[in-house]
Amino acid sequence: MQAVTRTAFGQRTVKPGEADGQRPAYPAAPPPAADALPDAPFGRREGVRPPADEPTGFGGAARTSDREEIHPFEFRGSGSEYFRIWIVNLVLTLATVGVYSAWAAVRQRRYFLGNTVLDGHSFDYHANPVSILIGRMVVLAALLVFQLTSVISPVAQLIMIVILLAGLPWLINNGLRFNAAMTSYRNVRFGFEGTYLGALASFILMPLAGFLTLGLLLPVASRMQQRYIAANTRWGTGAFGFESPLGPFYRNLLVTAGFAFLAGVLFGFIGGFAGIMAQPDLAATDLSEEQRTDMLIILSVFLVTIPTLLLTSAFYAAGVRNLAFNATAFEGRHALVSTVGRLRYVWILVSNLILTVLTLFLYRPWASVRTWRYLCGATALNSRGSLDGIVEAAQRKGNVGASQYLDLDGFSFGI
After folding, report:
1. Looking at the DSSP assignment, which residues form a beta bridge with residue 3?
2. What is the SS3 assignment for 121?
3. How many CB atoms are located within 10 Å of the residue 147 CB?
4. Which stretches of 3-154 are assigned E, i.e. beta strand?
5. Is residue 364 within 8 Å of 356, Cβ to Cβ?
């Protein structure tokens, strides 16, 4: 018996046996004109395809087909299934005073990636928990030394701050490199080849400039970070590319500013109402007028400022994700697509938080699955030609067996 499911990219029929690993058949879009480029949700994609007479660039093989195929990502896990993993991770992490958290992180990532499916095949995660544990111990030791220097001497503490800031780009690169190398799709590993100066500019200097300019340079920082990650990511020997103008990032900032204003007004009303209701209780206390004012300020921060900032950050991040994915292509031909609804994403996070608090955090596994499933359903790969041909070329160039040494090559400091 056949069933019909709906995704963000249309309706398809699920055939018997498909859940057992058989490859689902997705309808192919008609081939575009030779000079046509696909339109992305945030503007026209530019520079992601070579001329028709050029090879694919992946292994130098000539193209055999220009047919476009849409491959949606799917998540086949469930909240009840993940709950069993989550509760065991929680109990063992508490029982071992945090030591088991490295194994918990690997089990969590392995579950989510193992249930994330593209073209009928899931992703894999191969990290060694011991490497993660060692990395966390090094970071913890550095933080303890930093805390001790604050007691010994202010000068020593200042020196430690400079050392930690100087090492932050290295930590970021190491985390990105480790997670990429430990992830594979169809027996082919991912990779990351970032540089220290690139991470310093993308994650330290430009975000700092965005903060100092009150957000005016924030879109520049966002695009730089996304370009840095995409342009330095590999799959096998194939490279990802990133092409996007700056304008859409500034439009995302303007839309986010409007959302922040509306959210501020909403939470302002809530905070004002709470302040009015709290006035009689505060007046009945022995607190001075200045102390009562301070209490109202604290109340406004918790009920207005923090919720507004958190929701605005989620709204902005969803827009940046769409822009980044829609500007990223593998080997200049096979484009990622993201159609995350910003308001829908914010609502999922808010409702997840409410349900998690009301259930004393027992809803947390279902919240994680719900968020991941939505993001997967709003993501697809628009491939030019058969995805099997891409995979075959990648498997000849770089496979899991050839990169097993990466399990011992370094420690993860970013998880």
Report:
1. 14
2. strand
3. 11
4. 3-7, 10-14, 28-29, 39-40, 43-44, 68-75, 116-118, 121-125
5. yes
The SS3 assignment for 28 reads: strand
Q: Which helix (H) or strand (E) holds 153?
A: none
- Rounded-to-integer distance, Cα 251 and Cα 282, Å: 44
Which contacts of 305-310 are long-range, i.e. CB under 8 A and separated by 24 or more positions?
307/263, 307/267, 308/260, 308/263, 308/264, 308/267
Distance of alpha carbon 338 from alpha carbon 335, whole angstroms: 10
Instruction: List pLDDT tens digits, range 144-182.
Output: 988 888 888 888 888 888 988 899 999 999 999 999 999
Answer yes or no: pTM beyond 0.70: yes
C-alpha 116/C-alpha 99 separation (Å) is 28
Nearest to 66 by CA among 80, 81, 56: 56
The H or E element spanning position 399 is: none
CA distance 368 to 111: 12
Residue-by-residue DSSP string for 317-386: HHHHHHHHHHTEEETTTEEEEE---HHHHHHHHHHHHHHHHHTTTTTHHHHHHHHHHHHHHTEEEEEES-
> For residue 325, how many other CB atoms are within 10 A of its CB?
23
Question: How many CA atoms within 13 Å lie on the side-chain side of 337?
Answer: 22
The model's pLDDT over 322-353, given as tens digits with 9 standing for 90+, comes to 999 999 999 988 999 999 999 999 999 999 99
